[in-house]
Design brief:
The protein is an alpha+beta fold. It is 28% helix and 28% strand. This is 4-diphosphocytidyl-2-C-methyl-D-erythritol kinase.
Length: 275
């Protein structure tokens, strides 16, 4: 059995800078990995099937773990069957990248288990077929992201702690993208500009998420009492930096929804993974 963690991420900001001819949006964002993990257990067997335990609510054909395994099969030199058991700690549909991270973890582990012989860049390109957030988890480093999120420049970020709130709602990314009031023309910027004044960098989805989902608005109002609340991804999770003045236990205890205290990561625990 192979047991590995699958980390979550935060978007420290998220701007839409334009729309391409194919309908996809051009983005700029910073991905920061955090120590909130799903755990994945891989049990190789002599069967040819891939069984996934712990995500029964997701249809197999739409399951990113299953799709990651299927996309690697043509490269396998030593194919075997698998039972993949997942222990979910990262909330789903939350903007924390749990599904994308699980797909990336599957690509990294099976590339070695099945002796596919692919390098990280090749794995990241396969990952992009599964979702725009998968490549950053394959690389396992914090990154400045552009394009649809696939053009990555790896960056060093100061170690931080965050409080994350998970409002009790499931946000439809399609619904947010379909809103006419969504800002799609943010001025392109740079990592240097972010470093000078991070507080001026927001998330273009935040005003829409707040207006469509009262639970998000409530969570942001709550965190704004203690710091600057931000939305990660398209939500529903919101977060703020922890500072020395905060009474963390009290903030968590009185939160209007589930709260997490997390640390940022310099790199993924799967960085340089070897079986």
């Amino acid at each position: 059995m192979i047991r590995v963690p699958s980390p979550a991420k935060l978007n420290l900001f998220l701007h839409i800078t334009g729309r391409r001819a194919d309908g996809y949006h051009e983005l700029q964002s910073i991905f920061e990995l955090i120590d909130l993990y799903d755990w994945m257990n891989f049990y190789p067997n002599d069967d040819s099937a891939i069984e996934i335990v712990g995500l029964e609510q997701v249809d197999l054909k739409n399951n990113l773990i299953y799709r990651a395994a299927e996309i690697l099969k043509p490269y396998a030199q030593k194919l075997c069957g698998l039972k993949i058991q997942i222990e979910k700690n990262i909330p789903m549909g939350a903007g924390l990248g749990g599904g994308s991270s699980n797909a990336a973890t599957t690509l990294i582990v099976l590339n070695q288990l099945w002796q596919c012989g692919l390098n990280i860049q090749q794995l990241a390109e396969l990952g992009l077929q599964l979702g725009a957030d998968v490549p950053v988890f394959v690389h396992g480093q914090n990154a400045w992201a552009e394009g649809v999120g696939e053009h990555l420049s790896f960056i060093d970020l100061a170690q931080k702690q965050y409080i994350i709130l998970k409002p009790d709602c499931f946000i439809s990314t399609q619904l947010l993208f379909s809103q006419k009031t969504l800002t799609r023309d943010s001025k392109p910027t740079t990592f240097c500009a972010y470093q000078l004044k991070p507080s001026s960098f927001g998330n273009n989805f935040e005003p829409i998420a707040r207006s469509l989902y009262p639970q998000v608005d409530e969570a942001m109002h709550y965190l704004d009492q203690f710091g600057q609340a931000k939305l990660t991804g398209t939500g529903a999770c919101v977060f703020t930096d922890i500072n020395a003045e905060m009474n963390i236990a009290e903030i968590v205890e009185n939160a209007p929804c589930k709260a997490y205290v997390v640390n940022s990561l310099k790199q993924s625990p799967l960085y340089d993974f070897q079986l």
